[in-house]
Design a protein that fits this description.
Mean pLDDT: 96
Radius of gyration: 16 Å
Number of strands: 15
Distance between the termini: 41 Å
Strand order of the largest sheet: 1-2-13-10-15-8-3
Helix content: 10-25%
Number of helices: 2
Strand content: 25-35%
Structural class: alpha+beta
Largest sheet: 7 strands, antiparallel
């Protein structure tokens, strides 16, 4: 476990971007893993089952995705709430509470997030499961109709979170080492910054988090205005 035992403090990475190490304690992580497994089981066998999306370009992602609240259709590049007779599951209330508290904590670190604390109404949670060695390329979260901050939680294996500019995927980047329980929030002037996960480190998790391998990332968004 590369970063365990190293002192890590809350930091403002750049305007509107906050990183709070160890924000979720282990018992909460373990409960969330169990809860999300149940959500995935409920949707198994439906068009909205947890899966590795096939991109419009024809390639397939290495990350499994499960959607709550709204479903992102990688073929049409839009949010939908149903496919045929299958409706997307709602975001559970305890997850919404975690999202609100995460934004409040991040606003204490990056003041550019403060204007959203009272008005933030997350209506979607994207759950990404990274099998050992999985990565995600640089991309923007640019299809929501609000500029509310993105609240992101990590559980499991260590990973590198890379965030760049709002203009392109290229350098300069800021790389953040994420451990299980870490919180990252980005908004304000960097709400639409390109970001990705260029590296995960298999075998670095503590099994007390509820996983035996891989990494879960929970990303909260406000897709639509209040």
């Amino acid at each position: 476990m590369l970063f365990h035992g190293i002192e890590r403090n809350p930091s403002k990475v750049k305007p509107g971007v906050a990183h709070i190490p160890g924000w979720l304690d282990t018992s909460v992580q373990r409960a969330l893993v169990s809860q999300l497994r149940d959500e995935a089981r409920i949707m198994a066998g439906t068009p909205m089952a947890m899966h590795k999306p096939v991109l419009k370009s024809g390639g397939q992602m290495s990350v499994f995705m499960l959607h709550l609240g709204h479903f992102w259709d990688h073929q049409t590049y839009r949010y939908v709430d149903r496919i045929a007779d299958t409706h997307v599951r709602p975001v559970p209330h305890n997850l919404l509470d975690i999202a609100h508290r995460g934004l409040q904590a991040a606003a204490d670190v990056a003041e550019e997030l403060s204007p959203w604390v009272d008005s933030f109404r997350p209506d979607m949670a994207l759950i990404n499961f990274y099998p050992p060695g999985a990565t995600m390329g640089m991309h923007q979260d640019a299809y929501e109709t609000t500029l509310a901050p993105i609240v992101s939680l990590s559980i499991g294996d260590e990973a590198v979170f890379r965030i760049g500019s709002t203009e392109h995927r290229n350098k300069p980047w800021d790389d953040i080492a994420l451990l299980s329980g870490d919180l990252v929030v980005f908004g304000g002037p960097n709400r639409q910054a390109f970001h990705g996960i260029p590296e995960t480190r298999p075998g670095t998790l503590d099994e007390s988090c509820g996983l035996t391998e891989g990494r879960i990332n929970i990303t909260f968004r406000q897709v639509y205005p209040r």
